[in-house]
Specification:
With 98 residues, the chain is of the alpha+beta class. The chain is built from two helices and three strands.
């Protein structure tokens, strides 16, 4: 359990640093699904355009999974919206998401 907690914290720090260094706007992608046993899962990914400073016209679409978790309840619009707000705040993306 301690290893899992440490890895989760390390991934949070890595993802937060990655997002902090993104200079473009960010899009968030949510995916939700359930198992045959009705266990719900949600994942959140980000996508953005990266262009190196030495060649700002060389665009490259980047994508990263930032959150994967077990969910409780149903995948309703309200639940998805609430989870998305939590993810946006957790990774400090309030000024980068449009």
């Amino acid at each position: 359990m301690r290893l899992t907690r440490n890895l989760s914290l390390l991934y949070l720090v890595f993802s937060t640093n990655l997002i902090t260094n993104i200079s473009s706007h960010i899009s968030i992608i949510m995916d939700g699904w359930s198992t045959k046993g009705h266990c719900l899962f949600s994942s959140f990914s980000i996508q953005y355009i990266h262009s190196p400073p030495e060649d700002p016209h060389a665009w490259c679409l980047k994508s990263h999974l930032i959150e994967f978790k077990h969910s409780v309840g149903q995948h309703t619009g309200n639940m998805i919206g609430e989870e998305m707000v939590v993810v946006i705040k957790k990774y400090g993306m309030e000024k980068k998401v449009y």
